[in-house]
Structure formats: structure tokens, C-alpha cells
Amino acid sequence: MASKLLLEIVTPDRKVLSQEVDYVGAPGIEGEFGIMANHIPFLSALGVGNLYFKEGNRTHYIFVSGGFAEVGNNKVTILAEVAEKAVEIDIARAQKAQEKAKARLAKAQDRIESARAQAALQRALARLTCKDAAQKAGTTTH
Amino acid sequence: MASLKDVQNQIVSIKKTKQITKAMNMVASAKLRGAQDRIERFRPYADKFYEMLGDLAAGADSSVHPLLEVHEEIKTVGIVLTTSDRGLCGSFNANMINAALKKAAEKKAEGKTVKFYCVGKKGAAAVAKTEYEIVEAYKDDMTHFDFNLAASIGNKVIDAYLAEELDEVFLVFGEFVNVASQPPNTLQILPMSSEAAGEEAESGASSEYIYEPSVEGLLAELLPRFVKVQVYRGLLDTSCSEHAARMAAMDNASRACDDMTETLTLLYNKTRQAAITADLMDIVGGAEALKG
Question: Hey, which of A46-60, A91-105, B116-130 has the most confident mean pLDDT?
Fold first, then answer.
């Protein structure tokens, strides 16, 4: 029995990642879920948040937004509109985005505007936590 | 008859033009390669996306989703026209615009209102001269666009469709067949035909999946994205076609320059010879007169 599974992350612009991993944790739309080898076929929508995978004793973090996960045959495919490895995340930009989103949220007039601001804020926060988690795990260089 | 100096000036100016067209040809070919790369990079995503959608559509009884629903009365038609921002690419933009305007005229003849969403300066400029309304024009975006552009166009038309402001949406783009051929293509993106969504349903021998949330919930997430994927594909194709068309146009221009230089050089030599002959005649005539 295989004990590893292949993780593939693709976005419209590029293939972000394709490698063998031990464990994948993904932010499902109805809560986080974990995938290990020999999982049964599974299809889920992803929310905005951090995906992480373990390889050996190292944990890597990736920010994803607007995606889907398909699991089957010891292969996890993530289709995301945006996917950034922790190392690629621009902290300064995320912080700026966070402040901007907060300001927009504060003076949002209608429901749509405030929902948009909230989504932007959520993305900025997720990026920051992603970088943070990766720094703690010491895997920002990967 | 043109003087010697005139012809020489003309030759010099044509040679300079040729330098420019040649440079543009090379730039276009480099950009074409880049654009083709992007299509290649997009392919894994698109393939996987269709596969997933196929699996889902096979699992679900053609479940009713507002984007699949055909509106009862079709009053307003939206056309998303993709063109380039810059000219000098032969008849490429004209072809796109003509295809879009033909579609618009067709719909108008059926008594429907037509609204335009224009990507690229050229299309927006051409449509602005017609009677049709431009809801949104994206200018200067074709040179460096990413999925966000497709997403924002997608969201615009989806919102309008759900609000029943639009009842049909078409995408006009330059299909990149190969370097020599980029015919305009018109694709209906809304309402989605369930065949398009379930196109690959039969090939996908779908295994028993666990779906989270439900099949319907997943479809609700996937279908709007399908619109964006189609728009993105259209944009990528158009940008590829634009560069290919410019390459061909500039190649033609360079060749035309060569032809003209050749003709002019011939003329130059003839004129020069004529001038020399005339001079000689003068000298000989003068010498004869002195002898006499």
C-alpha cells in the first residue's frame, strides 16, 4: 500500500506544485479536512485560506483562494484561482491590503460593498497567517 | 520625371520603414511565443476543470441552476468582444469587430437590444461609433492581463444575467488555429447549455465520489467559474491571434518594402544613366562646336 500521495496544485496561470507528500490539510468550504494516502474519492469546494501539506516532518503552507480539491487514486488535485506558496507571499502588500480592506469595510454603504471588503480582508488575513505559520514551521525558504 | 535626389530620398525612407516593420515582426513573434506558453500553462487547469465538471454533471441529474436556465423572454443580448489594444495587425481587429457587429445586427433584427462588453481599445472604439450601448470597456488590458480580468468580466455578465438584465451572452474572440489562420469565433457563454457542461460526462467513467458540500452546491461553485474559464480561454486565444496576425502583417510589409526598394533602385539607376548620357552629349556637342 502506498503511503504517499501526489499533491498537484494548478492555477490558470501556472502549475504551482506537483510533489509527493504524506498529508494534505485543506480549507474546505464547510471546514478544514485532511487527506492521507488511500483516501476514498472525494470532491470538495475550497474556501479562502491556507492549505498545508506534510512531507517528512516538515509542514509547508500555501495560500489558496477560490478553488476545488479532487482526491482519488492517491492523488490530490487542487484547482485554485489563486495559489501562492508562503515564500511567494508579499507581506507588505498583504498588510496594505488588510488596512485598505478595513477602511473600506468601515465606510461600506451597502451589503455588496461590505461583503466585498470582507472578502478582501479575509484574503489579506489568510495570506498573513500563511506566512506566519510557515515562518514558525521554518519552511519559508521552500 | 523624378529627380535623382527624390528617388534616393524615397529609397532611404523605405529602408527605414523596413527596419521598423522587421523589428515589429520580431517583437510580435517573441510575444506570440509568450502567449502560446500561457495557453500551454492554462491547459492543465482547463482540462482538469472540464474533467471535474464532467464528473459532476454525470453524477447530478441536469440539476437546475440559474446559469443553465434559459430566460423565458429574450430581450437583451450581451456581446463580449475581445480585440487588441493596438493596430498594425492586418485585418485581425476588423474581422473580430465585423463578426460581433454581424451578430449584433442579427439579434437586433429579431427585435432584441444589444449591449457590448469590450476588451481592447480597438473594439471599444469601433463599437462606440455604432448605435449599440457599451456597458463596460476594458482598455489597455490586453497587453498584460491575467485571470483576474477574465474573472471580473465573468462576474459582470453573471451578475447581469442573474438580475435578468441580460438574457443571452456571446463571446467573440479570435480563435488561434495556427500562425496563418485566426478566424473570429462566436461562442454562447450564457445561458450555459447543459451539453457544454456535461460534454465530457460520458468519457469520464466517474467513480463514486464523496461530494462536499452537495453536488448542487459544488455545481453552484463550478458553473460561474466555468464562464470565467471560457472568457479566459477567449482572451488567451485573442492575444495569441493578435500577435500571430501582427507577425504576418509585418512580414508582408517587410516584403512590400523589399519590392519597392527594388523598383526604386532600378528607377534610380535608369535616371542616373540618363543624366550621364545627357551630360556626355553636352560635352561632345560642345567639343564638336569648338572644332567646327
Answer: B116-130
Work out the average pLDDT over A121-136: 86
Based on the fold, state whether residues A117 and A48 are members of the same structural domain: no
Ordered DSSP codes for B51-65? HHHHHHHHHS-S---
- CATH of residue A132's domain is 1.20.5.440
Number of domains in chain A: 2
A80 and A27 within one domain: yes
Predicted local confidence at residue B272, as pLDDT: 93
* Averaged pLDDT of chain A: 86
Q: What is the pTM of this model?
A: 0.83
Considering only CB atoms, which residues of chain A are within 8 Å of chain B?
10-15, 28-30, 33, 40-45, 66, 68, 70, 72, 77, 79, 81
Domains of chain B in sequence order? 32-247 (3.40.1380.10)
The rounded percent of chain A whose pLDDT value lies above 70 is 96
A82 shares its domain with A99: no
pLDDT above 60 (res B288) = yes
Nearest Cβ partner for A41 among B146, B147, B208: B208
Say yes or no: A80 and A115 in one domain: no
ipTM: 0.77
Say how far apart CA B198 and CA B60 lie, in whole Å.
Answer: 10
Can you tell me the distance from the alpha carbon of B235 to that of B149, in angstroms, rounded to the nearest whole number? 9
- Host domain of residue A110: 89-137
- Statement to judge: residues A15 and A75 lie in one domain: yes
